[in-house]
Amino acid sequence: MNPSDSISRKTFIKNSAWAMAGLTLVPDIISATPFFDDPNQSADGKMSFKNVRLETGFIYEEGEVVSTQTDLFYLETENGKITKVSANLPNAKAVDAKGMLMLPAFKDMHIHLDKTFYGDHWQAVRKRTGGVKGMIALEQKILPEMLRNSTLKAEKMIELLQSKGTSFARSHVNIEPTSKLESLKNLQKALDHKKKTFEAELVAFPQHGVFYTDSVPYLKEAAKMDIDFIGGVDPYTIDGAIEKTIDFTVQLALDHHKGIDIHLHESGESGLKTVEYLIDKVNENPALKGKTYLSHCFVLGKLDKAKQEEMAEKLGNAQIGIVSTIPFGSLIMPIPTLYKHGVTVLTGNDSIVDHWNTFGSGSVLQKANLMAQLYGYSTEFLLSRSLKLATANILPLDDKGIQQWPKTGDQADFVFLKASCSAEAVSRISNVESLVHQGNIVF
């Protein structure tokens, strides 16, 4: 972009991101023909692949990483694991990857598979009134109808994610007096139908507040079921009591050995107090370290630099992760600062097409691209590091360029793309040509 152009860089990124996202919402996209297929693949994922391009190291000029070195390899998988990585065997009887780049399968770590319009008729977002509580009122009105075919729509959305290279998701699922446990049960049916091709962990999510609509009995029941995290949303704005809501959430998680993942949109004083109080509770209960997350956490983007550093250090020490949907415009999250202090940063699409948002593309690689643009991660090295946002922190090369993935024993979850290296894949948002989950070709 010419420096003299009147449009700002952030505005350009924002507009182009929306445009890219809006073009990909095609319910039947999973029916696209993969670049290879093997009808003889076994049910236990016993497969072999040849001509697989893997990253092997960095190439330096005057101390700077200027390109990424790759080579062709031969792989074998069995029982969902990678069992062999060796020099290429071009004449072997194996699936021919045709020199495509192999990367770790992508992971969408914040999405709502249980409530979506995707796969159904188009609906734009309605005019919002009354803030989050106004949206709660809207949900109470429309959820019964949405739940009628929510299993089918969840399956369609899973297929969209697979077409974008994602084989794992952390899905929040409504637990509140309107849905009760129906939303959870419907989603579990969809996941059961997809269990051979897709994995998920679930967050019991009191979208309508813990106490605002008395979701307590339903959360307690859900905690006994097959879920992984206890969720929450804006304790002060919705429930009017930070300590009461966080205390309940923490105790429920401890009692049932679950993690915690709380939506926090509040960007003012109440948001900061919520973060600080959660940090204190996790430090008091070390069993929650590494199992606690704040989704969105917009308040971090509103703090001055010194306070951002302070909070990032505290979050890192408490091992509390941040799941960011990479907001842009005037609200830029301090992701580089979080990385600096060892905070786990994850991302997800959040909404695909629903009553909250209709711009989700299903691609977390696009999220990594957007992050790279926003923070100026334009060099070969920084672009390659940006891939970890799409893979939940799995990278083929470590920071010194030493190959660390794939190794024998790793999960056989990977994607093939038409790209020369991970830096190009991030920068160009390279198309996913095929997805392998537990050693089986699923897209």
Strand order of the largest sheet: 6-7-8-9-10-11-12-13
Q: Give the second-level CATH assignment, the architecture of the largest domain.
A: Alpha-Beta Barrel
Terminal residue distance: 36 Å
Overall average pLDDT:
91
Strand content: 15-25%
Identify low-pLDDT runs: 1-34
Counting copies of identical and different chains, the oligomeric state is single chain
* Outline: globular
Largest sheet: 8 strands, parallel
Q: Count of helices? A: 15
Structural account:
GO terms for molecular function: hydrolase activity, acting on carbon-nitrogen (but not peptide) bonds, in cyclic amidines. It holds the Pfam family Amidohydro_3. This is Deaminase. This protein has 15 helices and 16 strands. It is an alpha/beta fold. The protein has 2 domains: 29-105 and 391-441, Urease, subunit C, domain 1 (Roll), CATH 2.30.40; 106-380, TIM Barrel. The strands form 3 sheets. Strands 6-7-8-9-10-11-12-13 form an 8-stranded parallel sheet. The chain has a 4-stranded mixed sheet with strand order 3-2-1-4, with no helix packed on it. Strands 5-14-15-16 form a 4-stranded antiparallel sheet, with no helix packed on it. Helix 11 links the parallel strand 12 (320-323) and strand 13 (345-346). Helix 3 (150-163) crosses helix 4 and helix 8 (269-284) packs parallel to helix 10. The longest helix has 16 residues, at 131-146. The protein is globular. The two termini are 36 Å apart. Mean pLDDT is 91; it is low at 1-34.
